[in-house]
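Example (one chain per record):
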Amino acid sequence: MNDVHVIDHPLVQHKLTLMRQKQTSTNDFRRLLDEISTLMTYDVLADIPMQEVKVETPMEVTTGMVIDGKKLVFAAILRGGTSMADGMLTVVPGARIGHIGLYRDPKTHIPVEYYFKMPKELDERDVVVVDPLLATGHSAVAAVDRLKEYHPRSIRFVCVLTCPEGIATLQGAHPEVPIFTAGIDRELDDRGYILPGIGDAGDRIYGTE
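Predicted structure:
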């Protein structure tokens, strides 16, 4: 599992535990996902490129370092990825948002694309792909495959929860893409769900379970 970053900050782990509980309401689950995504952003963007700018303080002129938020794209895999992107926008409000619509065939677990929309000039941007779960890994691979057609400056993948099978699938196809997650669970069941997991993230976010 090279280049897999488990974000084990106590606040992140606390919120993940609350998300796991089946009695957690839709409203609370959505809020927790927003909060955990915001917290994870600090580690995900720890090495994002910066540039020096001149700053005039109340005392004198100096220099400081800033990121170029307009060069950053949060690419949300629909449905659940949109909630993660919203949480990340809390700390990087200048970031652009892209959407990748994929649904998983219930029999084959193979992703089928139905929507793809990204900001222009992707070759000049750093892309963070977000999806609450990296389960089978097929949707993640399909998303990165599509993004690579536009040659972004960098790609990284962020999820709240994953498992060994999902990591192996994504790294097998795209070994250079780092994975950031709050937890690596035991395994997948025969339906492609993570165990012990958090259930179907999309259903729990939108109350459709």
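Caption: The chain has one domain: 4-206.
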